[in-house]
Amino acid sequence: FLMMKAFLRWLSFLPLINLSSAREVGAAIHLDSFTFDNLRKSHDLLVCFDKYIPFGGKHDRFKDMAVKTAELNLPNFLVTWVGVQDYGEQLNQDLHKRFNVDEKNFPEYKLFTRGSDEPIDYTGSKTSRKQVLKFVEDNLGLYTTGKPGQVKEFEPLAKAFMKSTDREALKEEAVQLESEFAASDTITEELKASAKAYVKSMEKIMSKGDSYPKEEIKRIDKLLDGQLSEKKKKEFSKRRNIISSFR
């Protein structure tokens, strides 16, 4: 399902992509000079510079991270890679020279904010998915370290809720924040739905008691073990991730 989702997402960029050179690695879009310059006008890009036919543990971690990021459905952000040939047509050598990429350091990660020519270099572990995603979160403000469905702005409220002696105040804060999400033109419908789920979870806990999160997780797990469409599995998985924040 994730591979199909990535493929459909890739199709949406066909007007920008040179099909003779576009390839995918997992959920990452392969770029050349043309696609790179077009996509970075409208998207923040995490670019992995690597061999044209990459392999090995570091590359496997990159593929894992690309799939993880696709699940999060981050707005206006793409995980991409630029493979270079040191033989034949010497494909993408121009991009590697343009950004001073040293082949001895493959894979090399660079973060490009929308419209910027100057990348932010990643200097952490190349085998740690968490560190790479944290690097993206720190520089773009995107919530990459959460699970699908979780919302950065609501997580502190959820974590504080179960220990609070004034849950009504926290719920009102969540209601206000959810209203701001609902009124925003830049927040996705998916995030707006998650925001509502946080408020609903608070209301359920207040009416049914502190055992509600544990009982709800058990109920969702049973549903996930049953015969569900991929769409429903995704919805319930997100619901489970949100309610699991109330511990």
From TrEMBL:
Q: Which residues form the Endoplasmic reticulum resident protein 29 C-terminal domain?
A: 149-246
**A single GO cellular-component term on record:** endoplasmic reticulum lumen
The protein, known as: Endoplasmic reticulum resident protein 29 C-terminal domain-containing protein
Q: Which GO terms describe its biological process?
A: protein secretion
Residues folding into a coiled coil are none
Q: Does the keyword Signal apply?
A: yes
Which UniProt key words apply to this protein?
Endoplasmic reticulum, Signal
Domain ERp29 N-terminal intervals: 28-144
Residues spanning the signal sequence: 1-22
